[in-house]
Amino acid sequence: MTRTESPDIAHIARPYLYGGEEAAIASALSAGQYNHGALTEEFEQRIAAFLGVPDVVAVASGTAALHVALLAAGVGPGHEVLVPSFTFCATVQAIVATGARPRFIEVDPGTCCVEAAEVLGALTPDTRAVMPVLYGGRAVDLAPARPALDEQGVTVVEDAAQAFGSWQQERRVGATGVVTCFSFGPVKNLTCGLGGAIVPRTPMEADAYRQLRGLGIIDSAARRAETTTYTVDGFGMRVQMSPLNAAVGLVQLDHFAEAETRRRALWRAYAAALDGVGGVVLVDADVEHTVPPMCAVRVLDGRRDEVFRALRKRGIGVGVHYPPNHTQPAFAQWHRPLPLTERLGREVMTLPFHQHLTEADARHAADELRQVLAAGAGR
Ligand SMILES: *Cc1c(COP(=O)(O)O)cnc(C)c1O
Fold it and tell me: What pLDDT score was predicted for residue 1?
């Protein structure tokens, strides 16, 4: 019997600090710029260098990144955006915020990610954008659909909220030539406290993002310090990334190699411990290329809710990512039958996953899961 004293196992997810974040915030606080400032711009440049791209635009959250990217792509009322129902509700709210309609699509049950064929099959004359969700940090390659999407002027906006640091072949996610949105929320691979970023495809696109995130003003902090006026070039929201958050992110980025190693090791520990356990199937994260933010399994035979409750009772912090969006009351008007997604909604369960956990913790949680499955089997 594996035992752990770790209280961390009761948490499905928890922010992880490397040390240094508090001092960085204190110093940003006394510097006195809280809306947008030099630290935000330094964070953008450091993230761009990490990804291997010319520019990155930081914003207040992953949701704001998706909203800004869709607005800049010209998405609005009368348009349709293809999106998997099997995602965090933020993806869908970002579409609704533009005035466009979400058109919900299925995912592959083995990966919980969308495939090119599903996207092609769901295109309508109103489709203006497609939002692949990089579920569990796994890269999604829509290359086979690109000719048809390009021909119709459909923009691909990746929801890579969970995929910071992951790879698509030999490039980092974000460096593959599509508009990519990251989240740096509390329990993502890298946290700023709250935050997000968009990778633009062109300098013009970067300007559009900067205008939209900062009240319609695109001048840099340095330039504005030198002039007596500013220019409002168009519509804009106030969804900048605060230098206080950028300060946290800069410290986290210095330690990102540790996140990569630890998260992959944890995921592999779960995979090894669950190998051959009946009644449960791992959602494949392609861990060779992925920096996993979570570990998802499918609990078969209609037992998910029972297993979930039993594990919670045993102090194992399991979760559900995600209840499908097409069955949510807020999105009822866009409901269409999605049998694969509905089944995933009944089967998927996520295991405790964060950098406070050790591989022994993962083995312990997997062992508890195995015991719960065996106890209930064949009743
Ligand atoms: C976290 C997350 C978001 C939203 O990011 P925030 O920074 O919390 O706004 C969007 N989509 C997915 C798939 C996420 O996991």
Answer: 44
